[in-house]
Amino acid sequence: MLDNSIVGDMHFSFFPFTIGRLDETKGYVHVFDDTTLDIVMSTLDTITDFTEYLTKKEKLLDGDRMVRAAGEEEILAVYLSKMNEAGEHDFVIEGNPTRLIFGEGMWESFNQRPEPIAQTEANHISYLWDHLIERFGFHAMTGTQYSTSGRPFRDQEVAFRFLAREPRLLRRVLSEGFREALIESTKKELGFHARVVGPLDEDGPWYVFLFLEWRSGMSEAEYREVRRLRLVEYSHVVKLKYPQALDIVGIATEASLAEGRSEDFTYLDARRWTPNHQRMAREIQDRFGFLKKVESTAFRVYEYPVDENGNPRSD
Questions:
Q1: String of b and e for 154-185 (b: at least 16 CB within 10 Å)?
Q2: Phi/psi at 142 (nearest 5 deg)?
Q3: Is 81:51 a contact under the CB 8 Å cutoff?
Q4: Which is more confidently placed, 111 or 154?
Q5: What's residue 287's pLDDT?
Q6: Would you list the DSSP string of 14-82?
Q7: Confidence band for 215, pLDDT divided at 50, 70 and 90
Q8: How far apart are CA 66 and CA 7, in angstroms?
């Protein structure tokens, strides 16, 4: 049980198996048991989703009102059921009650609703993004990358952080966009296709997804070098086309649905943009035609998927 009215030494005197504030003079300490740790970490399974929950929970429990919950999972159920004006999960409580009690069974009831069931199904595609993070990170840390820019790992880490900080919902959006562009690339006669995804949040990077056909007669070394160069060049043209872009992350792979694919990863810190970069990017665009004809698409995505009538999907 959680009870924020229990402070410090009160834990030893009363209320066994109940956690409150361990030290009122210090910041809030989150305490999980085996069960609740598994629930929270498997439900909020990105660093951004997890830390946002902890931050908002701290604000709730450090407030002036008494909060009591049968368990961590009951608090989590309330958090996932509510949205604030910014469209974020939060503890939005109507009125101004001085006491909040989250009873047992709220988590179980929440998980039986159609919304989280549909969300779990829709999120399956998002783990493609996790797979990319794991592959890029593994090869960077073990020194098994096919080729590198020569920069130390600490510089590459900046780019990895952009991929890793994407919350689950945005990973779903990015993965769906990546998969759609991959399928589209197999229909292109030239064997080349690219998609640019603008920032999905205020401080997010621009992404370039590039798909290049492996033509017969090319060795693996030749193909990988050509693909990497095209990815770098395309990223520079993105900066030319969209001057506001500061962080540009590129991901390239084969224009094929076959298994056993390889991936390339690049990062452009466009804060270091110079007139020479501008000139080179213009030359690249004139030579290859990158982003001279742009098709823009806007869409709305729901964390809890809905049907054509706007109702929660139950399939």
A1: eebeebbebbbbbbbbbbbbbbbbbeebbeeb
A2: -95, 0
A3: no
A4: 111
A5: 93
A6: S-TT-EEES-TTS-------HHHHHHHHHHS-SHHHHHHHHHHHHHHHTSSSEEEES-HHHHHHHHHH-
A7: confident
A8: 12
Residue 308 lies in a domain: no
Beta-carbon neighbour count of residue 94 at 10 Å?
6
* pLDDT, mean over the chain: 86
* Burial of 140 from C-beta contacts in 10 A (0-12 / 13-18 / 19+): middle
Domain that holds residue 22: 2-112
DSSP-derived 3-state class of residue 91:
coil
pLDDT in tens, 74-104: 999 999 999 998 889 999 888 888 888 998 9
Same domain, 163 and 44: no
Structure tokens at 116: 């989280």
Q: Comparing C-alpha atoms, which of 162, 238, 230 is closest to residue 201?
A: 162
- For residue 239, being part of any structural domain is answered with yes
In this predicted model, which residue has the larger pLDDT, 63 or 39?
Answer: 39
* pLDDT attached to residue 249: 94
Indicate the pTM of the whole model.
Answer: 0.85
Query: What CA–CA distance (Å, rounded) separates 95 from 34?
Result: 34
Last residue of a domain, one of 112, 145, 178: 112
Spatial strand order in the sheet of 99-102: 19-21, 2-7, 66-69, 99-102
Q: What's the gap between Cα 207 and its chain centre? A: 13
Torsion of CA 219, 225, 229, 234, to 10 degrees: 60
281 and 136 belong to one structural domain? yes
Phi, psi of 269, deg, nearest 5: -85, 95
By residue count, the chain amounts to 315
